[in-house]
Amino acid sequence: MAYAALQTWFNLAQLLGGLLAGSLVDKYGGRTLLIISFAASALSYAMTALARSVPMLFLSRLPTMFQHAMLAARTLLMTECSFEDRALHLSFVGAAYGIGFAVGPALGGSLSKHSLQLSAWAATIGSLLCAAAVIIWLPVSKVQEQQATRAKTVGWFESFKVLRNPAVRHLLIVKMLTSFPSTILQTVVLLLLAQEFGLDVSGNGLVLSFAGVVIMASQALLVEPLQRRVGEGRAMICGCVLLALANLGVGLSRSLPQFMTAMTLSCAGGVVVATINSVQMTQHVETHAIGSLMALDMSLGSALRLVTPTIGTTLLKLAGRRGIGFVGAACYCLLLIGFQTRVLSQPPTAHKLKDI
């Protein structure tokens, strides 16, 4: 339960910081938020390395309130490109994230064999180098400069103004429903690997690296071609089918290779659903409000992860791996019915917000 409590505390910090970061990135641009994010990451990792008690470990998660490099990168790209290219560019961001997710856990698991603190110090140095790289090599965006004059203030509730648009509200509800079952699985996957298959920290790192490779490949090779070939609506359905099969596979798996096959489907399906949903939302707001929209989008994930660790660990304790898998599969089957009956697939018609 301490593991679930730490995850919940981290996601609370992410939720509160994300809502503030949305208006910040609209006002000051993605470059500024990237610098703040990497600095906050360096501080958090350094505090983790120095932590000698559980309260200090919880305290080390406080700077992650400002850890929003993904939000900054997504906003930068989407304000610079046309709507038709947004799925492709979001895929590039996701692929880059996948590379980091592939290399980071494997490297961290290897370093942790020598010392857990060594992994944290390596992450600290890496974050500081990233901040320096942004300062030296990333130019100030002219588009962001122009839009900063239209973004009025920075505050906790600025991001909520995009909810005036009914289409945005509808698509955020779809995001919540499609993300909830897979988020439960994500929050307990390391516990499953340890309890069901006996993997240690190094083994978990290799599994997470494999997941990163799948995410990278899905972003680069699956999302944009699938959207172009079948359209956004059918792409969402395809993603939910993959997630339903993945959760069913988790419930039925009896060996690590079978479990990893299910996780491959889960990563691919999750990438498709999340990316297409985000692209759909961006067509309903003005460009200068994309940062606020993306912040609300990503904060929704943090909000879900406030409750899913407790739900996941409780479900795992009561029903085991099969309970996690079969409940998730049932949820996605219900969602597929919702898409087929057009209850979920048709957002209300609305114009872009002109003044938020």
Commentary on this structure:
The chain has 356 residues and is mainly alpha-helical. 79% of the residues lie in helices and 0% in strands. The protein is built from 12 helices and no strands. Helix 2 runs antiparallel to helix 4 and helix 8 packs across helix 12. The chain is globular and about 50 Å long.
Which spans of ≥5 residues are poorly predicted at pLDDT below 50?
none
Task: Give the number of helices.
Answer: 12
Q: Give the topology string: H per helix, E per strand.
A: HHHHHHHHHHHH
Report the structural category: mainly alpha
Distance between the termini: 41 Å
Number of strands: 0
Radius of gyration: 20 Å
Subunit arrangement of the protein: single chain
**Largest sheet features:** none
What is the residue-averaged pLDDT?
A: 82
As a percent range, the share of strand residues is under 5%
What coarse outline follows from CA principal-axis ratios? globular
Helix content: over 70%
Task: Please describe the topology of this protein.
Blueprint: H1 2-28, H2 30-50, H3 54-59, H4 69-80, H5 86-112, H6 116-137, H7 142-148, H8 166-197, H9 201-230, H10 232-252, H11 256-282, H12 290-340
Helix pairs in contact: 1-2, 1-12, 2-4, 2-6, 4-5, 4-12, 5-6, 5-9, 5-11, 8-11, 8-12, 9-10, 9-11, 10-11, 10-12
Q: Can you give me a brief rundown of this structure?
A:
The protein has 356 residues and is mostly helical. 79% of the residues lie in helices and 0% in strands.
Keyword list:
mainly alpha, 356 residues, 12 helices, single chain
